[in-house]
């Protein structure tokens, strides 16, 4: 019974996160309406849609504490990064083609090279930083500083001059009490009035509170589910928590793609990954170790986290090459390839979590451990 109630609660948190992020998107779109194409997707949209990963990692660390909390946090952020890199582009491509908007999705090579290379670099930094066995506040600080460098570069690359874009999003309007019951935070805050800067900020804060509450429930549900089926929280978070927190990224990218903003759709996914790796993991790690002291990881946690970091880097490089080599556009074949790669990733994580002695899982695990060990040897 606990299995079904946990899965039901995870589904409910997905809906709450989705609706709350709708309000966040409305406000962030207004505040970032004058940003250039590709910049808004990689910064404001990426931060807004990645708040669930940040809150989930915070709650994993401060609720479960020590190694279990950290493994759940890095499982969520890394799993979400894999989801974003494969599922979101696939959904965008299939939706655009399926609706007859276009036969392929063409993304600016500048956006792919800029965000793709930045993501690969921060993932390499993650491998070197989170090598264990002890994690301190400065590890989190370095990760956050990497994100600030990325954002600073993005803002400077926007160039001079003001960009005026038409702002079209509006709240649905109607009864505020009914809107709150339906999860329509935009109407709850705005009512029938139009959005402005002060109301956009209020809507942002209101949305963040709801996202935080949903993420707390998500952590509790994942912990109960993992305990009931006998699977460590790390493996549950890589699949379930990461997918739940990636719902906003998927919806925002889908909406951008439907408007023909393919650069923002892909930049949101890549920018969200950079935020997840650097800030959604870095800030909780920084705060927790500052308050409670260093995190001492067990041998099994070091092994699992090491393998996941390497696997994340390998998959990111593959996706990056798919986009870079497909200069004429990404089509249905590429989308199916991305979905297949994600299916293999999930199958591997489940195989590891179940713990059965499966030769192919053991072989892949051994190779990933060797690569992780090679990176560790470069540090020592």
From TrEMBL:
Residue spans crossing the bilayer: 81-99, 111-131, 137-156, 200-219, 231-252, 273-295, 307-325, 337-355
Q: Which domain of life is it from?
A: Bacteria
Q: What is the membrane topology here?
A: Multi-pass membrane protein
> What keywords appear on the UniProt entry?
Membrane, Transmembrane, Transmembrane helix
Compartments in which it is found: Membrane
Q: In this protein, which residues make up the domain named Sodium/calcium exchanger membrane region?
A: 6-155, 200-350
InterPro entries associated with the record: K/Na/Ca-exchanger, NaCa_Exmemb, NCX_ion-bd_dom_sf
- Where does the UniProt entry say this protein principally localizes? membrane
Q: Would you tell me the protein name for this molecule?
A: Sodium:calcium antiporter
Highest lineage ranks of the organism?
Bacteria, Pseudomonadati, Bacteroidota, Flavobacteriia, Flavobacteriales
């Amino acid at each position: 019974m606990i299995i079904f109630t946990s899965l039901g609660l995870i589904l409910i948190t997905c809906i709450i996160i989705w609706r709350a992020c709708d309000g966040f998107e409305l406000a962030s779109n207004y505040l970032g309406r004058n940003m250039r194409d590709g910049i808004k997707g990689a910064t404001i949209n990426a931060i807004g849609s990645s708040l669930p990963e940040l809150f989930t990692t915070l709650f994993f660390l401060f609720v479960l504490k020590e190694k279990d909390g950290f493994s759940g946090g890095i499982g969520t952020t890394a799993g979400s990064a894999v989801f974003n890199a494969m599922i979101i582009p696939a959904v965008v491509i299939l939706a655009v083609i399926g609706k007859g908007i276009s036969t392929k999705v063409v993304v600016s090579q500048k956006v792919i090279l800029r965000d793709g290379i930045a993501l690969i670099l921060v993932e390499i930094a993650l491998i070197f930083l989170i090598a264990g066995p002890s994690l301190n506040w400065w590890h989190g600080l370095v990760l956050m500083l990497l994100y600030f460098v990325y954002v600073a570069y993005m803002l400077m690359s926007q160039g001079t001059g003001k960009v005026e874009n038409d702002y079209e999003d509006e709240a649905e309007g109607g009864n505020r009490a009914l809107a709150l019951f339906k999860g329509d935070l935009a109407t709850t805050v705005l009512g029938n009035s139009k959005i402005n800067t002060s109301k956009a900020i209020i809507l942002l804060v209101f949305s963040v509170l709801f996202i935080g509450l949903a993420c707390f429930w998500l952590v509790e549900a994942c912990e109960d589910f993992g305990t009931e089926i006998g699977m460590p929280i790390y493996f549950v978070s890589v699949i379930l928590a990461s997918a739940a927190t990636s719902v906003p990224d998927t919806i925002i990218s889908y909406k951008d793609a439907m408007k023909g903003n393919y650069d923002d759709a892909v930049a949101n996914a890549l920018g969200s990954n950079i935020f997840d790796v650097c800030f959604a993991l870095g800030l909780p790690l920084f705060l927790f170790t500052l308050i409670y002291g260093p995190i001492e990881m067990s041998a099994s946690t070091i092994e699992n986290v090491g393998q996941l970091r390497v696997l994340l880097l390998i998959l990111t490089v593959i996706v990056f090459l798919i986009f870079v080599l497909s200069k004429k556009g990404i089509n249905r074949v590429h989308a199916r390839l991305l979905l297949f790669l994600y299916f293999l990733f999930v199958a591997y994580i489940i195989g590891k979590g179940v713990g059965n002695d499966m030769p192919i899982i053991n072989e892949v695990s051994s190779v990933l451990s060797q690569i992780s060990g090679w990176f560790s040897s470069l540090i020592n």
